[in-house]
């Protein structure tokens, strides 16, 4: 009896937290803006399940791990997958030529697929 209850609890936990998996970055476009900043158009894929489990942000990360910009995602995108959102005005320190884009979700946080982007020079 206890074994069945424990198994039921594990299966219930798994079904409520892990079906959607981690948020993946599946596309990125970068443009240099006139002010010398950058605009990132990032496409994220995640099996959003409503407010309890959804992709809730993506980051622009320098090679040393410094977060240079974050786009907060304010609601689930259950019916729009994958989806693309933009972030403008990202300041990139001189000497950095490539950044990493990573997404997070409300359960797993980080850990899904990341993408590298080479910054345009003009």
Structural class: mainly beta
DSSP strand count: 7
Widest sheet: strand ordering? 4-3-6-7
CATH superfamily: C2 domain
Mean pLDDT: 83
At CATH's second level, what is the architecture? Sandwich
Shape annotation: elongated
Helix content: 10-25%
Strand content: 35-45%
Q: Enumerate how many helices there are, as a single number.
A: 1
Order of helices and strands: HEEEEEEE
Question: Could you please say which CATH topology applies here?
Answer: Immunoglobulin-like
Q: What is the CATH class name? A: Mainly Beta
Q: Number of domains in the coordinates?
A: 1
Rg over alpha carbons: 17 Å
Model regions low in confidence, pLDDT < 50 over at least 5 residues: 1-18
End-to-end distance = 67 Å
Biggest sheet layout: 4 strands, antiparallel
Write the SSE topology.
Elements: H1 2-17, E1 24-32, E2 38-45, E3 55-61, E4 67-72, E5 83-90, E6 98-105, E7 115-118
Antiparallel strand pairs: 1-2, 2-5, 3-4, 3-6, 6-7
Structure write-up:
With 122 residues, the protein is mainly beta. The protein has a single domain, classed as C2 domain (Immunoglobulin-like, Sandwich), CATH 2.60.40. The protein has one helix and seven strands; from the N terminus they run H-E-E-E-E-E-E-E. It has a four-stranded antiparallel beta sheet, with no helix packed on it. Strands 1-2-5 form a three-stranded antiparallel beta sheet, with no helix packed on it. A hairpin with a 5-residue loop joins strand 1 and strand 2. The chain starts with a helix and ends with a strand. The N terminus is likely disordered.
